[in-house]
Amino acid sequence: MTEEKLSGQGELIETAPQPTPLPKMQLAILLLAQMPEQLTASVIYPFVNQLVRSTGITGGDERKTGYYAGLIESLYYAIEAITILQWGRVSDHIGRKPVILVGLFGVTLSIVSFGFSKEFWMLILSRCAQGALNGNLGVVKCNMTEITDTSNMAQAFAWLPFAWAAGYTLGFLIGGVLSDPAAKWPDTVGRYLLFHRYPYFLPCIVAASVAIASWLITLLFLKESMRGAASRTQSLSHIDDTKKSIMQAAKIHDKPADTQVDILPRMLDEAETANPASSSLGSSRTDFRSILIPRVMIPVLHYGLLCFVDQCMLVLMPLMYSTSRPLGGLGFSSNTIGLVMSAWSMLNGTIQVYSFPRLLRRFGPMRLYITSFSFFLITFSAYPLMGYMAKHHMEAAMWLILCVQLVAYTIAYSTYSCIILYINNGAPSKDLLGATNGLAQTMASMMRAVGPTAVSSLFALSLEKNLAGGTAVYWIMCTIVILVLGFSTYLPKSLT
Fold it and tell me: What is 19-222+291-490's CATH topology?
């Protein structure tokens, strides 16, 4: 609300409106419910390339690892793309909380299954199940929008990348440190046959335990944010009672049939007007086409392109880091990869929370989006430079460039908060917020499904064919970033 105070001459002076306080407890629960998706998705990254090689699917050729690792990473998002829109629409009807609980339970089961997988086809099935049962990202964003307003929404959504970063940090750390524990700690963990037979079970079960804890906290403490979800049953029963009372009144007064027909629709309209939850339910079911408008579709397309570029970057990190130095990689172990990626995630989450609201106020959403996205050029071009330094044993310079890459990646990550605000702002109504975010997540999942397969295949092809000295994949990605920057001019300059 706008505050007013008296000036020296007794005149009222309007001051800037005070932002609404954030609902901290509910926001924290939502962030905790969101984190396991990133955790279970990222826990495999430090060891997935080694796991693929251990299945024997590559035939001993290290250069082919990218083809199969990319397929595992892509299938999760491909299946999610098919189901996530439906999860969003279901949440519009039954509420956000039940869908969030189903998603948390789904990722728990699927990551446990992944830890017990020793054959390549078992890895594929586990990742497909994880994608099918998880639709939380779009639903959580709907919930966050419903518990905030225009005065504090940007502040709330600045915490969302922090939750993602926390999930990625834990995932990378758990996957790197706890993978193949029998080899790392032969005198303790190595005594148990389970960890010899399933060397990647321990990080998966630890990730699953975090998801279960989030499920319990969500079940006990999360409040349903969609106002219509709690009152729809009452609203529909109220209309049914109204129908019965009208018919009974008509019989008592012995009204003619034509009078009854005239009175009933009018009174039912009044009943539905008094209970908007019931009428909004019908409109949300039938008016899905109303979100297919430019102010929704342009941000949704950008969200998809952003997810494609970001997923390619995320896949290249462990792939390039784990590749041997003669082939242009850094030759890192899974332990080192996990530590490096978790350090980046921790830095990223902290910076996003404190910097994004200030940067958004200073530069506006469009300028901030374009400037941040341009830093992807630095992240991709750093790869061939690091590979060159590693091959020539320039260790200090290699680590310096790696740090520059991670800082640039952190700056580029601000684009997520910008585009999420664009998407939520473009929704035609709150009744269609779930469908709007479901559409956005469908696009994001489709592009995330394409990204790992495309970039890992390009990586493998660049090495096999020695394209641009094995670095062609990085320059192709830089070209894609430039094209997306050109398309960014179609975004609105402000959030209206």
Answer: Growth Hormone; Chain: A; (1.20.1250)
